[in-house]
Amino acid sequence: QLPTGLYKKVLVIMHDSILPYMNEPTLMIDFLTVAYGIGGAISLLALNGLFILIHQHNLEYPDFYKKLYNLLDPSIYHVKYRARFFHLTDLFLSSSHLPAYLVAAFIKRLSQLALTAPPEALLMVIPFICNLFRRHPACRVLVHRPNGPEDMSEDPYIMEEEEPSESRALQSCLWEIQSLQNHYHPDVAKAAAVLNHSLSEMEDDISGLLELSGYELFDKEVKKKAIDVPLEFEQVRGLFGKKNDIFAEHFTLD
């Protein structure tokens, strides 16, 4: 048993400072699988090490995607390791051999959690979802279901279901993205509106959006050039601008 602080430090450097220097990296399988099952930030940090064992050392992990799916909670858009998590999730969902129900469950869960996400996270996750649609065309029924939100009295998707195959995501539709098209941040509304049109075949590069911060968004808005907006169609006269006012006879504006 390691203290939580040390546990996190070990997991952060596991993939580049520990596993490459071990004669038998597979000795870390139990350590990493236990860490992955703990939940929260520790599970997120265990992903890097597991990724190496799965791709380079043929680790078979039957419930891997189920556990990855259950890591998606409201905090995922706010945690310190958000960029690392979404980078690896993007890699894990890149295979075209994944079943449609599994990818649809990830899309639906990410979309529903996006309703309470900050703008900087939304500007990353919307292109992320669009890329999943490009890789898995069978999931496009979530967007192109005829009269989707209008014909559904309630959403068939079961958010609380831990098993992706039982979540009924493929029977649902992405009303959440439609809601984000009315988001208060214009860039988010514009990004969400992309799904109203046919997606291009080339994937969006999300690498530059993974570490986008609220400070960067605010700084970008502040640096925008202000546009002069005409607010008065009549020239102001006098102190209060009224033509037949006693103040207009005694006060003028230079």
Distance between the termini: 77 Å
Q: What is the overall pLDDT average?
A: 84
Per DSSP E runs of 2 or more residues, the count of β-strands stands at 0
Principal-axis shape equals elongated
Instruction: Write the H/E string, N to C.
Output: HHHHHHHHHHHHH
Radius of gyration: 25 Å
Number of helices: 13
Structural class: mainly alpha
Give your account of this protein's structure.
The protein is mostly helical. The chain has one domain. Helices cover 50% and strands 0% of the residues. It has 13 helices and no strands. α2 (29-38) runs antiparallel to α3 and α6 runs antiparallel to α7. The longest helix is centred in the N-terminal third of the chain and has 17 residues, at 40-56. The radius of gyration is 25 Å and the shape is elongated. The model has no long low-confidence stretch (mean pLDDT 84). The chain crosses the membrane at residues 31-54, 85-107. Belongs to the CBF/MAK21 family.
From the structure above, extract its key features.
mainly alpha; Noc4; 254 residues; membrane; transmembrane helix; elongated
Give a quick rundown of the structure.
The chain has 254 residues and is mainly α. It contains 13 helices and no strands. The longest helix has 17 residues.
Helix and strand topology:
Blueprint: H1 4-18, H2 29-38, H3 40-56, H4 64-70, H5 82-92, H6 100-113, H7 119-135, H8 141-144, H9 148-151, H10 175-180, H11 186-192, H12 214-222, H13 246-250
Helix pairs in contact: 1-3, 2-3, 3-5, 6-7, 7-11
